[in-house]
Amino acid sequence: MRAAYAQQSGGPAPALQGDSCANDKQPVGAGHPQPSASTAELLRQAQQAQQAQPGQGSSSEAWMETFTCPITQELIRDPVIAADGFTYERSSIEKWLQKSDTSPMTNLKLEHRILIPNMMVRAALQNMGLQ
């Protein structure tokens, strides 16, 4: 592609964003921090920190709220993302969409009814042993 640009423009092609990794002979992603702990480990650390600081809200409760369907208030087992960007339990949002074309969270009309599996939430639930 760069050669085609040079032929068309008569000059060298501008540097592409990804060229620096190739020129530096470093693997892509070099210099970027890698995840060091699983979600389960992070949850364990948060629980230990909470025990060391009594009197504040439980971090495990906050984690559970993150993985709770906003429609049913139950733990999500099959997480999907709706057009509003929120994650729901698949069966709950499917039932909702049979009756309504609005978001359960914003009450605004949804642009579409396509549900996309939320692989990040699924992986986090599996890492914590909740699936």
UniProtKB/TrEMBL annotation:
Residues 62-131 form the U-box domain. It comes from the Eukaryota. One of its GO terms (biological process) is protein ubiquitination. Residues 1-63 are annotated as: Disordered. CDD domains: RING-Ubox_WDSUB1-like. GO terms for molecular function: ubiquitin-protein transferase activity. Residues 1-10 have a biased composition (Polar residues). PROSITE patterns: U_BOX (PS51698). InterPro entries: Ubox_domain, WD-SAM-U-box, Znf_RING/FYVE/PHD. Gene3D superfamilies: Zinc/RING finger domain, C3HC4 (zinc finger) (3.30.40.10). This is U-box domain-containing protein. It comes from [Myrmecia] bisecta.
